[in-house]
Amino acid sequence: MAKNSTVKRIVNKLKSRLWFSIYYTIYQKSKLNKNMVFLESRNGSDMAGNILYIARELSTNPDYKHFKLYVPAKPYMAENVKNLLQKYGIKKVKFIREESLKYYKFLSKSKYLVNDTSFPRRFIKKDGQIILNTWHGTPLKNMGRDVKNEVYNMGNVMRNLIFSDYLVFPNEYMKEKMVSAYMLKNLCKATILNEGYPRNSVFFNTERRAELRKQFEVDNKEIIVYMPTWRGQVNKYDQEGVIDDTTHFLEEMDSRLKDNQLMYVKYHPLMKLEFEDNAYKHIKAFPAGYEYYEILNMADTLITDYSSVFYDFANSRKKIILYTYDKEEYFQNRGIYVSLDEFPFPQAATVD
């Protein structure tokens, strides 16, 4: 057993060194193209939020017609990403498999790079490249060095933030927390843009809200959205336990909801949980092919837990409930910047 483990480690090291060698060769030979824009959402596991709205602006605004967009996606997400971009009229897009040879080729050639998380560890920024990082949410939970038992995992995120040219933070609070958590002061020369998040513009689009409610034939229903956060650590995730908890919750909720109520469920992308639409009477998964916040904009009530999505949904001025059934357990391993008790949202520990 120990022998197999040793062989596996050696093989992985050799693969890693080979990849680094290949990438450095690509990096040195590729010349920057001023018309190439590389847009990556959650390491290729999604195409949503700020990245989608920025891509749509670049694709539909005639001022940017000279740009060619490059979007990486993991193999299992490729078809979903293509359908999503097609639905929103985002054209002039070349798809790339995440972390393939072409991925590194275009990463090295693109003058403009846009990310909501971080690029891989082997990525090197070239002279002349301009990087915009939008991150993916206002931090409620501790980040970076503030997560004492996972400080060792912050290096690549910190590096990505430091070499960015622009950081989009929707408020001063987020700026303060991110700069402190990732030790950016005096290290990062990026211009910080407190300009709001592109994705949050949807909450002020009442026409689109009415259009989708009519399209999904839910005009006469109270719409509830359930969006729980990620549970676990970066390299440790109890998927079986989470499935048991969420299944029990959905079964109980389904039995209590009335016929004029409908609950849409969207799990965190890292959870990779799904359920069949016909599994419940009053509960459905988010409709495929739509940007998440468009569905969220249909809601009358948001149920979440420790997810920063409530910062965004608060723009709608609609009801927010925090389902904190595992609060003590959750915060044993993860600190929080602001006590949940300071927010004007009711907390519930049970379905009742």
Structure description:
With 352 residues, the protein is α/β, with parallel strands linked by helices. It is 35% helix and 17% strand. The protein contains eleven helices and 13 strands. A seven-stranded parallel β-sheet has the order 3-2-1-4-5-6-7, with helices on both faces.
- Class computed from helices, strands and strand pairing: alpha/beta
What is the average of the pLDDT values? Answer: 90
Put simply, the count of helices is 11
User: N- to C-terminal separation?
Assistant: 49 Å
Low-confidence stretches: none
Q: What share of the residues lie within helices?
A: 25-40%
Beta-strand content bin: 15-25%
| Integer-rounded radius of gyration | 21 Å
- Strand order, main sheet: write it out: 3-2-1-4-5-6-7
Question: Which characteristics define this entry?
Answer:
352 residues, alpha/beta, 7-stranded parallel sheet, 6-stranded parallel sheet, 11 helices, globular
SSE layout and pairing:
Elements: H1 2-29, E1 33-40, H2 49-60, E2 68-73, H3 78-87, E3 93-97, H4 101-109, E4 110-115, E5 130-133, H5 155-162, E6 166-168, H6 172-181, E7 191-193, H7 206-215, E8 222-226, H8 239-256, E9 261-265, E10 283-285, H9 292-296, E11 301-304, H10 309-313, E12 319-323, H11 327-333, E13 347-348
Helix pairs in contact: 1-4
